[in-house]
Design brief:
By secondary structure, this protein is α/β, with parallel strands linked by helices. Helices cover 17% and strands 26% of the residues. Helix 4 packs parallel to helix 5.
């Protein structure tokens, strides 16, 4: 039987929920009319965008954006540079220096090469369903983190393209000059056929700029070329959104060869004068505003159960979910979460694992900036408890949040035996590491099987 240490040694991304960006993008059709693109000198945020002669079409401006800070974007940036092009990289600061993501030094090098770095929150939440203070921490502190790393941060992209008018105001107040959405410009999706072929300049809404659907693994070279070519008649702004380049078995990745072909084509189109290729900053313009820190996280709770919604009874924003709880995991496996009859209240959470090769899956308090995750105290030990039924071994996985907001794997408990009836698992943690500001935990599955959990508890060991 494997030990807990053997189970953990191959964990490829311990601090980040690995399926975050696989969620369906929320598309907000913000377009209110298809108007002609004006062909005069346009100036907004203090930057002149273009000057076109009378009766001529406006320029077709293409912007290549890259979300999340995946490590394969380093090579993607080098490919752009070799072609004389530059891109905008929207970085989730809490992911930096984690496996499969860029290091701070790599992001700094991208900026030094002329690429733009933008904000993408600290931990990649759905801002439309977070509380106001949490949204402010996510948006503002992401900009603070990146600025403290010596990066010039002016523009933002919404995780999942999900926003509300209130969130847009938060983004503006955090000092950003613009924020990118998705799904408001004609792309390869049949349902986008009635949308405009390009965004107007200046943008109709600076804090939800119109963009194509994200580029996915089923896009071809013809698809990528068509979304640019169809805009040439009238001109306008085309924002393309990439996540990964050359990552196998990733629905948000295209091959390295396809990407190289497309970059070469864009280079040639630019050289022929058919298009312009610019970063978001070059299109939007404006100055770099002072950083604005988000609200301080709630003070530590030193009494009672630290877990919010411990019995999973309060519903989350999405059907079948519990407020302040999120699925997590990593590796090659297929987890399915659903609500079932509870041990005490109405609901419990059931995880069914199939197709297991490696990694794990679990439910745990949301890895956020203070709205849901229990605030922690460095050096403090914690008593963890949860009721469970399981067809396989399980164990507690623990995570901690740093002062900058990144989440890291901490440790795991010994294995807990399978049980066909409700059994309370319990374990006392070691002292919380220095610099930690919050803690999260969950019971995991690291094999095929079914695990049902309910009635969680996290208390300080006195």
């Amino acid at each position: 039987m494997r030990t807990a240490a053997q189970h953990r040694q191959n964990q490829n991304n311990p601090g980040v929920v690995s399926q975050l960006c696989r969620r369906t993008i929320k598309k907000r059709n913000r377009w209110t009319g298809v108007g002609s693109v004006i062909a005069l000198a346009l100036s907004f945020l203090g930057a002149t965008v273009f000057v076109a002669p009378a009766q001529a079409a406006s320029p077709t401006i293409v912007t290549l954006t890259f979300d999340d800070g995946n490590d394969n974007q380093v090579a993607a940036a080098a490919t752009l540079k070799a072609a004389g092009l530059r891109g905008t990289f929207f970085v989730t600061s809490g992911y930096l220096n984690s496996p499969s993501y860029m290091t701070t030094a790599q992001v700094q090098a991208l900026q030094a090469d002329g690429h733009e770095i933008g904000g993408h929150t600290v931990t990649h939440p759905d801002l439309a369903v977070t509380g106001a203070d949490e949204a402010k921490r996510q948006v503002c502190n992401d900009r603070v983190n990146l600025t403290n790393a010596g990066l010039n941060i002016q523009n933002f992209a919404y995780p999942f393209a999900s926003s509300t008018p209130a969130v847009e105001t938060i983004v503006k107040n955090c000092g950003y000059n613009s924020a990118r959405g998705l799904g408001d410009v004609r792309s390869v999706a049949p349902e986008s056929a009635g949308m405009p072929v390009a965004a107007t300049l200046p943008p109709a809404d600076l804090y939800y700029t119109a963009a194509l659907d994200q580029v996915e693994s089923n896009w071809t070279l013809k698809d990528l070329q068509r979304v640019v070519n169809q805009a040439k008649t009238k001109g306008g702004w085309i924002q393309l959104t990439f996540h990964s380049i050359g990552r196998a078995n990733d629905e948000l990745s295209i091959s390295t060869a396809l990407y190289q072909q497309y970059v070469n084509w864009l280079r040639d189109q630019k050289a022929a004068g058919a298009i312009q290729v610019k970063t978001v900053r070059e299109v939007i313009g404006g100055v770099t505003k002072p950083v604005v820190p988000g609200p301080v996280a709630p003070p530590p709770n030193t009494t009672d159960n630290l877990v919010q919604n411990p019995s999973l009874e309060t519903a989350g924003a999405t059907a079948g979910t519990a407020k302040c709880w999120s699925p997590g995991g990593y590796g090659t496996n297929t987890p399915v979460f659903k609500q079932v009859a509870g041990r005490t209240g109405k609901v419990a959470q059931q995880l069914t694992m199939s197709g297991y090769k490696d990694g794990d899956a679990k439910l745990l308090p949301t890895l956020d900036m203070g709205e849901c995750a229990p605030t922690g105290q460095a050096g403090q030990k914690y008593s963890l408890k949860a009721w469970y039924k399981s067809t396989a071994y399980t164990q507690f996985d623990l995570y901690y949040r740093t002062g900058a907001g990144s989440w890291n794997y901490w440790t795991s408990s010994p294995y807990l035996n399978a049980s066909s009836s409700w059994t309370q698992g319990s374990w006392t943690s070691p002292p919380l590491p220095a610099g930690a500001t919050a803690v999260s935990f969950g019971l995991n599955l690291f094999s095929n099987g079914v695990l049902t959990t309910d009635d969680y508890s996290l208390t300080i060991v006195k």
